[in-house]
Amino acid sequence: xxxxLIIEDDEVIRSEVVQWLQFEDHEVFxxxxxxxxxxxxxxxxxxxxxxxxxxxxTDGYRVLYELRISPSTALIPFIFxxxxxxxxxxxxxxxxxxxxxxxxxxxxxxxxxxxxxxxQRRASYQATTDQQIATVKRSLLRQLSHELRxxxxxxxxxxxLLTSGASTLSDDEIVEYGQMLTSxxxxxxxxxDNYLLYMKLENELGQxxxxxxxxxxxETVSVIRGTSEQVAxxxxxxxxxxxxxxxxxxxxxxxxxxxxxxxLVDNAFKFSTAKQKVVxxxxxENGIYVLSVTDQGRGIALDNIPEIAAYVQFGRxxxxxxxxxxxxxxxxxxxxxxxxxxxIESTLGKGTIVTVSMPVGRTT
Length: 364
Description:
Layout: E1 3-7, H1 11-23, E2 27-31, H2 34-44, E3 48-51, H3 60-68, E4 78-82, H4 87-96, E5 100-103, H5 108-165, H6 171-203, E6 214-215, H7 217-234, E7 241-245, E8 250-251, H8 254-270, E9 278-285, E10 288-295, H9 327-337, E11 341-347, E12 351-359
Parallel strand pairs: 1-2, 1-3, 3-4, 4-5, 7-9
Antiparallel strand pairs: 6-8, 9-10, 10-12, 11-12
Helix pairs in contact: 2-3, 5-6, 6-9, 7-8, 8-9
């Protein structure tokens, strides 16, 4: 049984369609005009909406538009039923986001076929979505367990050694244990910081974009070069890094650019090995600033690129891999909040190129 909303100003047609659907055990709501239909859709969130086009107060096109721009109703399947059947009307309805179109007069079989087809597609989509959510949940739980337990085990183990055998340890050993504690603390700190930042960025989805202060040309170079070199040093691969950055004012905050560069360059080193070059470039092109990070690492399969998302890691069961897979998602979201874009090109076994395009500003 599905919940279906019928929006039709003709009482006879509306009553007949409602009866047909109820006979198939569907729960049906009906509205006599578009404005009432929008209200009922927002109130009941039906599984399917079937609407006339020519109606008083608010026509079907406006109904569809208002429902599509609202996050709570944007994905509800929508079928138009109307005597307006020329090609222009069909194309306009589909451009607005209609899923199907039934021309009046129609038979009961024609309507039910269209309804069942859309409901089946919705059920299939929902099943796929539920499976993806379940996969992400399993992956997140597994990753969190590993990423939280690993540094904590380090803390406990070293703490016990220091507690029980401090008097027998040399100065060099104490320094070594201190470095191990610091490393574990940094790993845990970054994990928590990235998780909190990702959640903050997700909560800002849909909020209006406010252009940040323009970063001066000299500081743009300093942030990109300095952050890249620091990451390479952390990975003990300074010799594998190549940086070529042209000066240009960029419409972005310094800390935001620093975070973007850090995550992209860190990924480049993380997914490549010693002696495989990581190349960072920054240059002005046609009114935008283009930052590119290229590695010669293991790359990403073409089919996996569209699946890149938070908490998703490819080949974690094969490769030793730290983190929750949040870095690239955070970088992408920060770029988009600044009215820029992030693009990924990758070839499995050959490497990856991540390109960031950012608006260029003018310094005063």
